[in-house]
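Notes from the 1:1 (GR / supervisor)

We went over the backlog. Supervisor wanted to see one worked example end to end before approving the batch request, so GR pasted a single chain during the call. The sequence is below; no edits were made to it. Supervisor asked that the structure be written out right there so they could see what the output format looks like.
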Amino acid sequence: MSEEFNMSMRKFLKQVGVTSQQVIEEAMRGANGTAGKSFDAKVVLTINDIDLEHVVTGKIEGA
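Structure output shown during the call:
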């Protein structure tokens, strides 16, 4: 793959990671009773023009 592709993909994934973490942290702070609980999480990545849908699931532990 080209260097331009690699840089644009890294920039996109960094943005996804940073903004997702900020949103999750804000939601956890705004919710009551999250300590000691486990939360199911799911991210769906889509790129319509190439018919891509990628699903990632996991758990986030409350603090």
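Supervisor's comment: The helical segments are 3-30.
Batch request approved.
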